[in-house]
């Protein structure tokens, strides 16, 4: 509030006394939070580039607002923006058509501006999907498992499955998915889940959130696998299955629904308990508590979503456990680092990773490791193969290559289940789509330089050493990527993929949708699958290689090259002579599409939509930013940036 005038703002609109009373009744009178007379405080968020001071003058007859000259320009614009988009209207009216069109055209103009100069994030800002505009006039929902049609028929799972197969092939997984797990293996027991013939075939789904959802699912998947939870394929081994386990719950549910008492859910419907009980009173077991406690390792360059996943899933990180149990600091460390150290280029330091993992492996803990394949800020690729070379012998030494769990079957017999004591998840938000094509381009001599492309996918195996043959060990358990990053979908999406044998036991087969509830979301975006399908149907491998090689050149030669040339001028003090220290700290990790440099002034940051990051590695807090060589980045755009960075005051600090 603050201005004391807010309530007067609309008094001139109160021409209709009756509807005002209604509105008062519905809102003010009841103290409803949708009270239309609410005004933003001066801290209310505003959007740089959405409106200009001129707009306030021009639109003031449509948007009711106190004197535009009031307050600071920023606060004025913020409040004006709020009024322009506010859905609640005084005295119970609709948003006027005139105001609606104005708001939409302001928004369009804003998106246009975003497209003109967008450089700071790893998304393609100008995808083109308007040829699918008619898809927007149907609700398309891929609820439930991608490989079961289920009862919600307005779906695009046929496209989703094609997209998944495409990625399975790209990531060298066995495809197609073995759908036997979805089928009844006995017609009299329609609910039974059959054992897969090819447990190594992939399983996955198209995400409705971005890679964050994929990482969350990967961590959940890995946690349950390592802690000895019953997986989908184990359920079949028990001669029982999830769905039979649930019979009680469903029956009472079905009954109450049938009797018109919808919503009175069965109190027995605790799925964890049901599964355990039906497997004759026991969870999968192994001897110690440690062996059922996965410890998570991820590098300091990881995306912030991994830290959130730890909290949501209550997964323990090595730092948390080591400090809580007072483990002595590991070799080469003075104290326990909070995250696995990363190298200067942003990739995980595999030697440190090995030291930290072994501290836990020797105590019997299994390892849940999240690798980055394209770290967010520096765009660095963790060398998963090199990590495996160091880690597999450690797992071997400490009996974590092959662990045996057992459960007691209904005849009272002990049944063994073999599992690895590690789970490698690859967070490949950008890199898992970009790098396979860069590799193809490299193989086809489309790059000018020789490059080393670290392996990360399902084809990765251990190696034969002089002591032991690890070559039949499948290293990677799960991969996730973002569909709106390198591919350029117009909505957040992505792919999560694992193997059929690692599938989590779904908690339910809701009769409501009649597919296993194997995914994270309930309703899932069908459009996301349609967009990705459309994209790959329009782009051949040749196109994709061309695009990868182009982006690579744009990052390496154009962006990094021009920023380095600018930096040379600064270091010679020919440009920005007062800058201290006289460097732009330009940095480009191998094969990264990101180029990092000193953070420019606020106007430049906003114009090019740049992000901020701090680096403390060099004994000083360096304020940095980066630009990403995504598909839409042109030479002209880069030159515009370089021009702006050459102007006086371009690196004036703010905040
Ligand atoms: C962007 C990114 C994510 C998160 O992806 P969203 O699609 O934004 O959810 C996760 N990990 C890395 C390395 C990323 O760069």
Automatic annotation (TrEMBL):
Its cofactor is pyridoxal 5'-phosphate. Coiled coil: none annotated. Pfam families: Pyridoxal_deC (PF00282). The modification N6-(pyridoxal phosphate)lysine is found at residue 485. The keyword Lyase applies. Keywords: Decarboxylase, Lyase, Pyridoxal phosphate. One of its GO terms (molecular function) is carboxy-lyase activity. Belongs to the group II decarboxylase family. This is Histidine decarboxylase. It comes from Riccia sorocarpa.
